[in-house]
């Protein structure tokens, strides 16, 4: 795909507290989309998962309130310091795998009182970390509305927030929406403009048109061309800052690839031990992934990676695209999937 | 919901009091006082004004109010006296009747109801008020007046003027746990809400001419209905001659004899009356003079009366004196034939003769010109019977029965020779005081209207008010059921009638057998109540109508002379019909007579008809005079400022009510520019052709009409908010949506019926495209993240009622506490959700198999109390047996509410409400507002779904194949308007024949950087590539329907069997088997899979081992044939148990089925 080995390039166009706009270029469409999917579905965050209801005399049912509490965004910058509840050795929940929040609201006055997310109090076990505090992004710093109560009504709950990913439930999604666009001039003709009279007049121009050359009508259509610039517009819900969301998304993606490579390698190793390596795919399998063994096994294997911090930050882009993975993906291109992957 | 970016960015906190502020605004729904007044645009404001005065169920309330305020008094008057057969000078006379008030109560004193309505619902009590009568009777020689005697309790219609909610503010309603948006118009009987449906029937006391061209019969019929009688009189042709036919006369009476009996003796008069001077009519009628003369030799009235008297079928009532034949004849003509014409002294039967002659004339006219028949499907020939009328029939029946039993009781007491005390009639009255209450209660709760005096039995008059959604309850209040039989295969009554326009909704009717027979009222319909006839008659005479009684018969059918009919009965003649009608209408418009009295001319019959009777359907229209609408800008301004209400428009003669007949006689312009010189009226608002339920549909005028009909049926099944008091209700089944939204594309009707305050659905972002193949056949693809965030989430609440009985032997049912595990001290698993009182604890989970009411009944409930010490009933566990209520369902529930109370008969009542919260799952049913239903076919992760360049992904993907054949263009426009509204931050309108214009919507889309067609470029969520086609993408209001997989899923491997046949039970509720039916069986036979057949039909069902004796062919037992007393030839075999049962049943009727067994091969 790319002639040089420089790897993907990220150009950040705009950063705000809850969104980032960047251009990802010099990479494949599949990779760009994988990043998008990974951001949406794989980045772990913290969200209330279990609610112990002590007193609920509001008009809303327990499940209703629990559902609402679950959807409240909680500060998840340091969520990596928590274990997944399923991996934790505790029986129910503990401070290694969860954050406890409490809420106690009682209306003693006439009229209607509103319970907001800011009324959630984080129990101080993780006080030195940025974790578990409800996100209050609105002007009044109140956060989301949980419910409304009138005189003598009371809501007293204990919430256990756990680490999770959005694949399981949308409450763990770090992002609200991920804008994704490429080829604003439709040079690649991936889409047919539906029009009645004139497509150019009837269709609005993309904002990103300014960043690319308009098509030359005299130019011949290049049917081998591939998309190169991918315009991302990531908006977070506030739990993790936008840059971090992207980085963690890429990290999760890389983890997954590493997982695949690691398991494949294991199979190869097992087969080699059993002496029937020829049963798998082609004979070249082992050699092509020879480099990968090292990669999966050492650098990414198991716990060393789990901490995740070492991969954050700036060094990432080059490290990622340049060395280990770049080679592999190149190798991957040559590889025939039909024969190889079974 | 799917467009998370929108919710994220535009999240502004609305002030908590916003809803209140809106209510305080002087003008409703976004209209400012300073806005320019445009009569064309703003005349629709009359509609909310109309609904403000009348409410949505005004027909029911008006009818009931009329019944309690006026009809009751009439009934009392008609049945005023009770006399004794024993003591001649005894009498008891009813002088007055009141509901809910004592005589000395001030007019604004609260109604004496026992309990507020919501408490009645919860405690299974009837919401009723006492009926008080004032009586006057003799005690000895004295006349005694007695006031406020309670003779029973009357169920009260909610929101009627006898209801405590009448005219109450929202705060008061809230304090009574009532929803201010609830329309009322129903009764609460034993805790259930019952609606008396509007009954449609043919007009009473009107001549209807029909013809049967095949049999060559023309008949005029009239159904007479008075307080005492209902009877039907026919004037029919038979072999070209005209006869009078009536059920109580055994054979048909030649019309001439009938007329002679009624005192029109001269043949000339008869001819003049029936034919006038029309030669054709005379030729047709002449033959009728022959038979009476030649065959029966009848000339005089007496002979005619005798003739009839001999043919009367007499049903003598007990104790009535025997009548002579002549008297029978007089009786028949005076009281039975055309019974609604009353002849005061019995001798002057002329008016009756006149009526019969008119009937005969109509027959002659129809013979001459077959087009002169009436259309029985014409809405003008229909009358609607409402709750008030039905209640009044029932009440009169019960009151008569009450009186006759009261009288018998008085007679019984008076018969006794020596009474110690002076007789006081009131001492006996109270014995029957529950008669009326129970009669009314039973009729409403069962729906069986049995009226002794008309020998009428009608079932299914009342229905339980459906509380599935707000709309379903509202739809039920506007429903009209036809008396027509559902099974008959005629299209006429089911077809859409042009005269329905504006009166009955053109879209809202069920599919299937009741199609076209069950109708719904349109938005502005009003149903009249009875008005007094006498003053109208007098007004007619004052306006120059010649009294028919003093007119020479020869002048009746003169050219240019119009007959004037009042409620179908001829009252006079006028030479100036146009002028008369003009004057009459002037009186009505100036408020001198009731606005609901209609007048119209029928030029074919040369007749003017005036109607004052109840049950006519009518609607308001703006009066147009000399080509100018009477409603002008200044009037609308007054309306907007709140100075004027709808009644002021009526009073000032700007607007008038028109019934169907009068409407048919006028020239109505749809919009102001269409007014011509001859225009008489102007429509207030065209969208009122639809009813409340069809009014929810956005852009219905762009849809194929059956789709609107389907939506009307589905809107009633949508889950949403039910009422403001929904969490206080304990209903058998309650579906509530967690996050209902008002639709992005509203209609004016939606605002008028407050659907925007109690919505049932959510605005889903829809992509119209194919995805995954799990969307064929109308299936929908749902976004998993949307479901996570609460899309389509609903609560299902189920009630369980348990009554703790008391038994005659002083034992009673009890609720015992939970059982505790001896070692741990924890309650046993079955009792985990119980509290210490033996009832489910609110908030706890109940799993299948757990107990939530631990009820115990006494072991010895049947024992007599003799021998036991009644003062020491033993409540110990030893004397009680546990009969706990188990929870059985595939999914657990939570206990939402537990109520303990006492019902009306003093037994403890326990109601437990169980709650489930459900998120949509595969197979749940959804529908848009355009009759497009579909089930969820697959739930897809958000990252896999297509998205647009902003990252918005759809909540629902709908397959485009849903469009071409359904032609629901309204749905597409809804999407575009909705999308424009979302981008613009406004709510758009899809009102019928109006609403936001597509062009404007497209303009908004273009302004906001979208394509005008509503299509977007989407990217595949799986590959990231953009989709080749452009996708129709935007918000559509989706309803979640009550049909959910969880309530339907069912499978069985082994399970219970029926006792008698030992075959698997039937139905999901009994964990039944899935039947391999006859047609399936045919398939298996045709395929030749005999072993499969054997397995399915016998082995998996009711296989049974029998011992058959091959000698006698009968079944033995244990290898022994009891018939042959041998075990020699007994062979064991397998047959279906049902076959064995059949053999034994045959044996029991002395048929011996014998089995001959042989080798197969």
From TrEMBL, chain A:
InterPro entries hit by this protein: DNA-dir_RNA_pol_30-40kDasu_CS, DNA-dir_RNA_pol_insert, DNA-dir_RNA_pol_RpoA/D/Rpb3, RBP11-like, RNAP_Rpo3/Rpb3/RPAC1, RNApol_insert_sf, Rpo3/RPB3_RNA_Pol_subunit
GO terms of biological process kind: transcription by RNA polymerase II
Record's protein name: DNA-directed RNA polymerase II subunit RPB3
Family listed: Belongs to the archaeal Rpo3/eukaryotic RPB3 RNA polymerase subunit family.
A single MF term (Gene Ontology): DNA-directed RNA polymerase activity
Native source organism of the sequence: Saccharomycopsis crataegensis
Domain of life: Eukaryota
Pfam families (alphabetical): RNA_pol_A_bac, RNA_pol_L
PANTHER family xrefs: DNA-DIRECTED RNA POLYMERASE, DNA-DIRECTED RNA POLYMERASE II SUBUNIT RPB3
PROSITE patterns: RNA_POL_D_30KD
HAMAP family noted in UniProt: RNApol_arch_Rpo3
GO cellular component terms listed in the entry, alphabetical order: RNA polymerase II, core complex
Keyword set, alphabetical order: DNA-directed RNA polymerase, Nucleus, Transcription
Location in or out of the cell: Nucleus
Assembly, per entry: Component of the RNA polymerase II (Pol II) complex consisting of 12 subunits.
Residue ranges occupied by any DNA-directed RNA polymerase RpoA/D/Rpb3-type domain in the UniProt entry: 19-263
UniProtKB/TrEMBL annotation, chain B:
Enzyme class: transferase
Record's keyword annotation contains Nucleotidyltransferase: yes
Localization annotation: Nucleus
Major place of residence: nucleus
Domain RNA polymerase Rpb2 span(s) in chain numbering: 204-385, 464-527, 564-625, 646-678, 1072-1156
InterPro entries associated with the record: DNA-dir_RNA_pol_su2 (IPR015712), DNA-dir_RNAP_su2_dom (IPR007120), DNA-dir_RNAP_su2_hyb_sf (IPR037033), Glyco_hydro_1_AS (IPR018120), RNA_pol_bsu_CS (IPR007121), RNA_pol_bsu_protrusion (IPR007644), RNA_pol_Rpb2_2 (IPR007642), RNA_pol_Rpb2_2_sf (IPR037034)
A single GO cellular-component term on record: DNA-directed RNA polymerase complex
PANTHER family, sorted: DNA-DIRECTED RNA POLYMERASE I SUBUNIT 2 (PTHR20856)
Pfam families referenced in this protein's UniProt entry, alphabetically: RNA_pol_Rpb2_1 (PF04563), RNA_pol_Rpb2_2 (PF04561), RNA_pol_Rpb2_3 (PF04565), RNA_pol_Rpb2_4 (PF04566), RNA_pol_Rpb2_5 (PF04567), RNA_pol_Rpb2_6 (PF00562), RNA_pol_Rpb2_7 (PF04560)
CDD domains from the UniProt entry: RNA_pol_B_RPB2
Name of this chain's protein: DNA-directed RNA polymerase subunit beta
Subunit structure of this chain's protein: Component of the RNA polymerase III (Pol III) complex consisting of 17 subunits.
GO process annotations (BP): transcription by RNA polymerase III
Sorted UniProt keywords: DNA-directed RNA polymerase, Metal-binding, Nucleotidyltransferase, Nucleus, Transcription, Transferase, Zinc, Zinc-finger
PROSITE patterns with a match to the protein in the record: GLYCOSYL_HYDROL_F1_1, RNA_POL_BETA
An example molecular function term from Gene Ontology annotations: DNA-directed RNA polymerase activity
Catalytic activity: RNA(n) + a ribonucleoside 5'-triphosphate = RNA(n+1) + diphosphate
Database matches in SUPFAM superfamilies: beta and beta-prime subunits of DNA dependent RNA-polymerase (SSF64484)
EC number(s) reported in the record: 2.7.7.6
Family, similarity comment: Belongs to the RNA polymerase beta chain family.
Annotated active site: 625 (nucleophile)
Its job: DNA-dependent RNA polymerase catalyzes the transcription of DNA into RNA using the four ribonucleoside triphosphates as substrates.
All copies of domain RNA polymerase beta subunit protrusion, residue ranges: 55-437
Residues covered by the DNA-directed RNA polymerase subunit 2 hybrid-binding domain: 693-1070
């Amino acid at each position: 795909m790319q002639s040089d080995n420089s790897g993907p390039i990220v150009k950040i166009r705009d950063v705000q507290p809850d969104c980032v706009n960047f251009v990802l270029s010099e990479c494949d469409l599949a990779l760009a989309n994988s990043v998008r999917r990974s951001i949406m579905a794989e980045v772990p965050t913290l969200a209330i998962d279990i609610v112990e209801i002590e007193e609920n005399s509001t008009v809303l049912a327990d499940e209703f309130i629990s559902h609402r509490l679950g959807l409240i965004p909680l500060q998840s910058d340091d969520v990596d310091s928590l274990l997944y509840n399923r991996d934790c050795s505790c029986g129910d929940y503990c401070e290694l795998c969860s954050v406890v929040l409490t809420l106690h609201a009682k209306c003693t006055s006439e009229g209607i009182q509103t319970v907001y997310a800011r009324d959630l109090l984080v129990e101080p076990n993780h006080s030195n970390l940025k974790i578990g505090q409800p996100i209050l992004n609105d002007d009044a710093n109140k956060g989301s509305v949980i419910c409304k109560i009138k005189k003598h009504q009371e809501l007293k709950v204990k919430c256990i927030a756990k680490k999770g990913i959005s694949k399981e439930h949308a409450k763990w999604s770090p992002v609200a929406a991920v804008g994704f666009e490429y080829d604003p001039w439709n040079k690649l003709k991936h889409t047919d403009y539906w029009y009645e009279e004139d497509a150019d007049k009837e269709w609005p121009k993309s904002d990103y048109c300014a960043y690319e050359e308009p098509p030359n009508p005299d130019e011949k259509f290049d049917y081998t061309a591939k998309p190169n610039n991918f315009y991302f517009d990531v908006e977070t819900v506030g739990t993790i800052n936008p840059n971090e969301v992207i980085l963690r998304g890429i990290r999760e993606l890389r983890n997954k690839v590493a997982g695949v490579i690691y398991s494949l390698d294991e199979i190869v190793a097992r087969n080699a031990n059993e002496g029937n390596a020829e049963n798998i795919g082609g004979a070249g399998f082992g050699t092509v992934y020879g480099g990968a063994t090292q990669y999966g096994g050492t650098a990414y294997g198991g716990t060393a990676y789990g901490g995740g911090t070492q991969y954050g930050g700036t060094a990432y882009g080059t490290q990622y695209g340049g060395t280990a993975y770049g080679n592999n993906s190149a190798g991957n291109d040559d590889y025939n999937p039909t024969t190889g992957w079974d | 919901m799917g467009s998370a970016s929108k919710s994220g960015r535009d999240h502004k906190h609305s002030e908590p009091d916003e809803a209140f502020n809106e209510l305080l605004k002087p003008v409703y729904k976004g209209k400012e006082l300073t806005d320019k007044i445009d009569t064309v645009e703003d005349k629709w404001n009359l509609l909310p004004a109309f609904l403000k005065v009348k409410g949505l169920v005004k027909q029911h309330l008006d009818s009931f109010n009329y019944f309690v305020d006026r009809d009751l008094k009439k009934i009392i008057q008609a049945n005023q006296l009770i006399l004794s057969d024993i003591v001649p000078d005894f009498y008891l006379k009813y002088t007055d009747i009141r509901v809910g008030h004592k005589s000395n109560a001030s007019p604004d004193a609260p109604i004496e109801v026992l309990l507020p309505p919501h408490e009645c619902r919860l405690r299974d009590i009837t919401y009723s008020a006492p009926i008080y009568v004032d009586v006057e009777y003799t005690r000895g020689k004295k006349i005694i007046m007695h006031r406020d005697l309670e003779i029973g309790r009357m169920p009260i219609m909610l929101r009627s003027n006898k209801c405590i909610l009448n005219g109450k503010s929202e705060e008061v309603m809230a304090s009574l746990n009532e929803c201010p948006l609830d329309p009322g118009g129903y009764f609460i009987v034993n805790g259930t809400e019952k609606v008396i449906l509007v009954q449609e029937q043919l007009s009473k006391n009107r001549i209807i001419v029909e013809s049967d061209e095949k049999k060559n019969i023309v008949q005029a019929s009239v159904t007479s209905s008075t307080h005492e009688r209902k009877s039907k009189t026919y004037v029919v042709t038979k072999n070209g001659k005209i006869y009078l036919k009536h059920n109580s006369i055994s054979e048909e009476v030649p019309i001439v004899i009938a007329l002679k009996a009624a005192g029109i003796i001269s043949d000339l008069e008869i001819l003049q009356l029936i034919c006038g001077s029309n030669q054709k009519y005379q030729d047709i009628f002449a033959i009728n003079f022959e038979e009476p003369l030649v065959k029966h030799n009848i000339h005089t009235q007496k002979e005619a009366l005798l003739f009839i008297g001999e043919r009367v079928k007499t049903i003598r009532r007990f104790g009535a004196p025997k009548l002579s034949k002549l008297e029978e004849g007089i009786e028949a003509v005076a009281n039975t034939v055309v019974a609604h014409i009353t002849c005061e002294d019995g001798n002057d039967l002329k008016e009756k003769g006149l009526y019969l002659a008119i009937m005969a004339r109509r027959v002659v006219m129809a013979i001459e010109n077959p087009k002169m028949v009436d259309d029985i499907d014409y809405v003008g020939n229909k009358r609607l019977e409402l709750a008030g009328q039905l209640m009044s029939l029932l009440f009169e029946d019960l009151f008569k029965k009450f009186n006759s039993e009261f009288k018998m009781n008085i007679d019984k007491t008076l018969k006794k020779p020596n009474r110690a005390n002076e007789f006081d009639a009131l001492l006996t009255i109270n014995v029957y005081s529950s008669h009326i209450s129970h009669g009314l209660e039973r009729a409403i709760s069962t729906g069986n209207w049995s009226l002794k005096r008309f020998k009428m039995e009608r079932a299914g008059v009342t229905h339980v008010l459906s509380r599935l959604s707000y709309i379903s309850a509202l739809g039920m209040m506007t429903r009209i059921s036809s008396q027509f039989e559902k099974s008959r295969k005629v299209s006429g009554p089911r077809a859409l009638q042009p005269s329905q326009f504006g009166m009955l909704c053109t879209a809202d009717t069920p599919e299937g057998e009741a199609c076209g027979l069950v109708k719904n009222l349109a938005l502005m319909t009003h149903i009249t109540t009875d008005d007094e006839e006498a003053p109208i008659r007098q007004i007619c005479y004052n306006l120059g109508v010649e009294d028919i009684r003093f007119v020479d018969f020869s002048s009746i059918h003169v050219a240019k002379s119009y007959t004037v009919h009042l409620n179908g009965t001829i009252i006079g003649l006028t030479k100036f019909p146009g002028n008369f009608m003009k004057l009459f209408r002037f009186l009505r418009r100036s408020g001198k007579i009731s606005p609901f009295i209609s007048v119209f001319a029928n030029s074919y019959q040369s007749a003017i008809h005036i109607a004052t009777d109840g049950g006519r359907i009518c609607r308001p229209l703006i009066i147009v005079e000399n080509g100018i609408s009477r409603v002008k800008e200044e009037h609308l301004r007054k309306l907007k400022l709140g100075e004027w209400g709808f009644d002021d428009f009526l009073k000032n003669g700007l607007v008038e009510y028109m019934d169907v007949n009068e409407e048919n006689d006028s020239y109505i312009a749809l919009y102001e520019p269409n007014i011509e010189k001859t225009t008489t009226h102007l429509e207030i608002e065209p969208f009122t052709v639809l009813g409340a339920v069809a009014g929810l549909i956005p852009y219905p005028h762009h849809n194929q009409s059956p789709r609107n009909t389907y939506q009307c049926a589905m809107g009633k099944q949508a889950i949403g908010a039910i009422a403001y008091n929904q969490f206080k209700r304990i209903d058998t089944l309650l579906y509530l949506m967690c996050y209902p939204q008002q639709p992005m594309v509203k209609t004016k009707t939606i605002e008028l019926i407050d659907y925007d305050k109690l919505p049932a659905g959510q605005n889903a972002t829809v992509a119209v495209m194919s995805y995954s193949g799990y969307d064929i056949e109308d299936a929908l693809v749902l976004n998993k993240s949307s479901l996570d965030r609460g899309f389509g989430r609903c609560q299902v609440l189920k009630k369980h009622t348990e009554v703790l009985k008391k038994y005659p032997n002083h034992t009673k049912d009890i609720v015992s506490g939970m059982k505790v595990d001896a070692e741990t001290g924890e309650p046993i698993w079955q009792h985990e959700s119980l509290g210490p009182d033996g009832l489910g604890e609110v908030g706890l989970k109940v799993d299948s198999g757990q107990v939530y009411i631990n009820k115990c009944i006494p072991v010895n409930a049947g024992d007599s109390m003799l021998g036991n010490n009644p003062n020491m009933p033993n409540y110990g566990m030893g004397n009680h047996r546990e009969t706990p209520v188990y929870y059985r369902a595939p999914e657990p529930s939570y206990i939402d509410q537990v109520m303990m109370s006492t019902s009306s008969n003093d037994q403890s009542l326990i109601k437990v409400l169980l709650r489930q919260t459900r998120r949509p799952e595969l197979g749940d049913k959804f529908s848009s507002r355009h009759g497009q239903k579909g089930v969820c076919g697959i739930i897809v992760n958000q990252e896999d779904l297509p998205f647009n360049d902003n990252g918005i992904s759809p909540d629902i993907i709908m397959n485009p194949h849903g469009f071409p054949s359904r032609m629901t263009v309204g749905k597409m426009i809804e999407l575009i308007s909705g999308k424009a509204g979302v981008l613009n931050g406004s709510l758009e309108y899809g009102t019928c024949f109006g609403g936001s214009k597509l062009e404007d919507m497209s303009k908004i889309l273009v302004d906001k950087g979208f394509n005008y067609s509503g299509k977007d470029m989407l990217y595949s969520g799986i590959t990231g590539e953009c989709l080749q086609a452009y996708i129709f993408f935007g918000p559509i209001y989706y309803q979640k329907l009550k049909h959910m997989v969880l309530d339907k899923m069912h499978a069985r491997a082994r399970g219970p069997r029926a006792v008698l046949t030992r075959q698997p039970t039937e139905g999901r509720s009994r964990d039944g088997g899935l039947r391999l039916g006859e047609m399936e069986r045919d398939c298996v036979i045709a395929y030749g899979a005999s072993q499969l057949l054997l397995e399915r039909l016998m082995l998996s069902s009711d296989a049974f081992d029998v011992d058959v004796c091959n000698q006698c062919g009968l079944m033995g037992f244990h290898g022994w044939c009891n018939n042959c007393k041998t075990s020699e030839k007994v062979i064991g075999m397998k047959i279906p148990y049902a076959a064995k049962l059949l053999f034994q049943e045959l044996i029991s009727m002395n048929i011996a089925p014998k089995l001959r067994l042989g080798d197969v091969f």
